[in-house]
From TrEMBL:
GO terms for biological process: anthranilate metabolic process; L-kynurenine catabolic process; L-tryptophan catabolic process to kynurenine; NAD+ biosynthetic process; quinolinate biosynthetic process. Belongs to the kynureninase family. InterPro entries: Kynureninase (IPR010111), PyrdxlP-dep_Trfase (IPR015424), PyrdxlP-dep_Trfase_major (IPR015421), PyrdxlP-dep_Trfase_small (IPR015422). GO terms for cellular component: cytoplasm. This is Kynureninase. Catalyzes the cleavage of L-kynurenine (L-Kyn) and L-3-hydroxykynurenine (L-3OHKyn) into anthranilic acid (AA) and 3-hydroxyanthranilic acid (3-OHAA), respectively. SUPFAM superfamilies: PLP-dependent transferases. Pfam families: KYNU_C. Pathway: Cofactor biosynthesis; NAD(+) biosynthesis; quinolinate from L-kynurenine: step 2/3; Amino-acid degradation; L-kynurenine degradation; L-alanine and anthranilate from L-kynurenine: step 1/1. Its EC number is 3.7.1.3.
């Protein structure tokens, strides 16, 4: 592999997604000291179309249309859901809904799935999964007289399928897993896990937060049951933007979600005295959706759908391969180790690097115009986003990291424990 900067420039010149970069703010500067943003797996950049879309929702739809704009707004959740279903998630129309937070959506689907497996008293989750997912599982279990069975996963290489298989038996009602591990980027095979769970009679709820917009989920082809995910990472919906949920069409009429709100009611404006869930995926709605925030989500969702998930995934693999190759070539002598799966098929679109002073390295890089993030215990996480990150951006960021390690300037920064918060 040619690791020269010229090779990175050549890769950018032939990148089929290159044109999307100009559709995001903050990408105009081409100078040597420009900001190198490698935290797209935490918060995506602002699409240039988003301010106008939000302003239109505020000034025209709200300001002029007033309550009459609800004729359009009530369709928002399903309309954006269909964009994500067909363009990003490999699902069918009418299977995805946008509106609540990831945590609320996970709670709804987990409880609904547990109710659909009466007589089973175990919930399975991964011990190394994102904290919110584990907290929600831990909260639901005792409230329903169930227990939690946590499966171990390697901090760098992720969950092994044989470990999961040993945890599945006739007591398991629901499995909760992330497609991409938040710390290492380790990728789990949705189809294979679904097969294992189905053989045991269990349902699976997937968290696609670190995958959607960067890694194909192929939910229909995989036979996936249920899924949730955020929209503010690779989908560029903005900070705190509403999440999505997915319910396989064949399950929709079987499940009854636990939060009975008027947007999930069959005839919501009849204001009936009894709750009667709507048909299809609409029954998983709850209350009034955040209309203004949804306007931003729709822009990001349509950008990702336009780019195409296969092209996004291919570029994501290439960008992370470059991170790993440069880390091996330049950083091994400085005590840096790759802490993500090396096989592209087992990795999402971010890479973690292990170093005893990862916190200090993170702060030193930020001060030098590189934005990564830190994850415990000692991981520097780099998330190049395929829609707007270039190969030269990765090369230059790794070069600045090499310089910081070489001059040991990170050592002047306080440790995480001693920092002022």
């Amino acid at each position: 592999m040619d690791l020269s900067r010229a090779a990175a420039e050549a890769a950018d010149a032939t990148d089929p997604l290159a044109g999307f970069r100009a559709r995001f703010t903050g990408t105009d500067d081409d100078g040597p000291d420009r900001l190198l943003y490698l935290d797209g797996n935490s918060l995506g950049r602002l699409p240039r179309e988003t301010p106008a879309a939000v302003a239109r929702a505020v000034e025209q739809e709200w300001g002029q249309g007033l309550v009459g704009s609800w004729r359009d707004w009530v369709q928002q959740s399903g309309r954006i859901g269909d964009v994500l279903a067909e363009g990003v998630l490999g699902a069918r129309p009418g299977e995805v809904l946008v509106g609540d937070t990831t945590s609320v959506d996970l709670y709804k689907l987990l409880v609904a799935a547990a109710d659909a497996r009466p007589g089973r008293d175990v919930l399975v989750c991964c011990a190394d999964d994102f904290p919110t997912d584990r907290y929600i599982v831990a909260g639901v279990a005792p409230a329903r007289g169930m227990t939690v069975r946590e499966v171990e996963a390697h901090i760098d290489t992720g969950l092994e399928l044989d470990v999961l298989a040993r945890a599945l038996d006739e007591r398991v009602a629901v499995v909760v897993l992330s497609q991409v591990a938040y710390r290492s980027g380790a990728l789990v095979d949705i189809a294979e896990v679904t097969r294992l769970a189905r053989e045991a009679g269990a349902l699976v709820v997937w968290d696609l937060s670190h995958a959607a917009g960067a890694v194909p989920a192929d939910l229909t082809a995989a036979g996936a049951d249920l899924a949730v995910g955020c929209t503010y990472k690779y989908l560029n919906g903005g900070p705190g933007s509403p999440a999505f949920l997915y319910v396989r069409r064949e399950l929709q009429e079987q499940l009854r979600q636990p939060i009975w709100g008027w947007f999930g009611q069959r005839d919501q404006f009849a204001m009936g005295t009894a709750y009667d869930p709507a048909d299809g995926v609409d029954r998983f709605a709850v209350g009034t959706p955040p209309v203004l925030a949804m306007a931003a989500v729709e822009v990001g969702a349509r950008l990702s759908a336009e780019a195409g998930i296969e092209r996004l995934a291919a570029k994501g693999r290439a960008l992370t391969e470059l991170v790993i190759a440069l880390a091996d070539e330049w950083l091994g002598g400085h005590g840096v180790a790759v802490a993500s799966p090396r096989e592209p098929a087992r990795r999402g679109s971010h890479v973690s690097l292990a170093h005893p002073q990862a916190w200090q390295l993170t702060q030193a890089l930020i001060d030098r115009g590189v934005v990564p993030d830190f994850r415990t215990p000692d991981r520097l996480r780099l998330g190049p986003a395929p829609l707007y990150t270039r190969f030269v951006d990765v090369w230059d960021a790794m070069d600045r990291l090499r310089t910081v390690l070489g001059d040991r300037s990170h050592e002047s920064y306080p440790t995480e424990r001693s920092r002022v918060t």
